[in-house]
Structures are given as structure tokens and as C-alpha cells.
């Protein structure tokens, strides 16, 4: 039987997203494919209310706000919500920014759409999904903001492996050997709590400065500047900049984004 991380481990790792620097770095995460949002609008049975779980600085919530009467942007990180409000700059009065976890949120029922953009692996599913089952018949799970850069998969994974070994010396969680089977299972464990209606993959090309690509890495819990420390973060940045330099044209990288969408109805109990 494949073992998952404990909820305590998830919560400990997720605490990095409360850091102001991680939240400020989030702007550099690549966008999801535009066609993915078009598909969400086709799937939604109505345009009344939407809920974005683990909204971060509002990448999905802001996109939905042009199409729904009300969007609840929910995140346990006050720093993320602050960045989100600043990014939206008051353009969408129909976004309600809520500093809370999905497990403890006590809002109204009746959402036409609930989204989770690269966030569904963080909550306690035994608490969250019974609530989701009462809130909506359409949960959309989105992933795909970690593209392989133009240096190629082998060079990129080699770089990450070397730096994971460095970080394992300062971050106890990373001392555990990487288990790809466990990682895949962890990323898909929510599917036992869904009656899956479909899956689609969307591809698009995104041009990003090499500088922003480096900054993007510090929006991820593993590479947060607080965890790395100033000197190690500077060394990481220099090494990654050197890796990307041969592939940048006028300082810009071409990133091939693959956005995955899984949708269906949340279940109050898991299968099996």
C-alpha cells in the first residue's frame, strides 16, 4: 500500500505560504492556459457563485470574476490575500477575499463552481470533501504551473536534485528520499473523493523573463528564501540564472505550459 504524507507534514510544509516573500514571488508563477478557463465556463451550470479554494493571490479567482456574480477567494494565508487584493486593485467588487481554510470555512452553500488551482493536495480531505459535497456538484481541480524550462527535462531535474540535496541539510522534511510513486499518489489522493466527470489537458506557450523564472522558484515551499537563508538563496539564484542564460533570447525564456483539468462531483466519503 502506498503511504501518503501525514496532514501534519502537509500543514508544516504549507506554512511557507504565509511568508510575505513567498506571496510577493507568486506573481512570477506562469498562468494556466486561457483555453482552460473557457472550458470551466462551459462546464459551469450557472454564473451565480464560484469558490476558489487555496486561491493564493487570486490567479484563478480574478479570471473567474469577469463571469460570475460573486467569487469567494479563500486562502489561509493573509499575505497571499494582501497580494491578491493589490493585484486586482479594486477592479472586481464581486470578489470576496476570505482568510480561512476550506476545512473551517462556514460560508453559504450553493456554488455553481468550486476550483482548486494547484492547491487540492494541501487540505485535510476527510474534513473538506464532506463540506464540498454539500456546496457544489462541480469541483474543478487545476494543475500545471511548474513547466519544464527550455534547458530540457534532464538538466532541470538534475539541477533540482542537486539543490534538494543541499536543502536536505537545512530542511528536515527534505531528508527523506524522493519517492516518485508516493509523490504521484499524494498528488492524486483527492480523486478517491470525486465522481470524476472528465479530464482535459491544455497547452500554450508563455514568454517569461529569466529573472522572473528564478523569482518564481521562491514562490514554492521548498525554495522559500526564509528556508534557504539569504546566502544560500543568492547561490541558488546565481546557479539557476547560469543554467537559463544560454536559452534566453534578450533575457526572455519560452516556456511550454501544460495545464491539466480534472472535474467532477465531490463525494462525502471516499471510494473504496
Structural account:
By secondary structure, the chain is an alpha/beta fold. The chain is 38% helix and 21% strand. It is built from eleven helices and seven strands. It has helices at residues 7-14, 20-25, 34-43, 59-64, 78-88, 125-135, 153-167, 180-188, 210-217, 225-228, 230-244; strands at residues 49-53, 70-75, 95-99, 113-117, 139-143, 194-209, 252-266. A seven-stranded mixed β-sheet has the order 3-2-1-4-5-7-6. Helix 5 (78-88) links the parallel strand 2 and strand 3 (95-99). Helix 9 packs across helix 11. The protein is globular, with a radius of gyration of 19 Å. Mean pLDDT is 92; it is low at 174-182.
Order of helical and strand elements:
HHHEHEHEEHEHHEHHHE
The whole-angstrom Rg is: 19 Å
Strand content: 15-25%
Summarize model confidence as the mean pLDDT: 92
Number of helices: 11
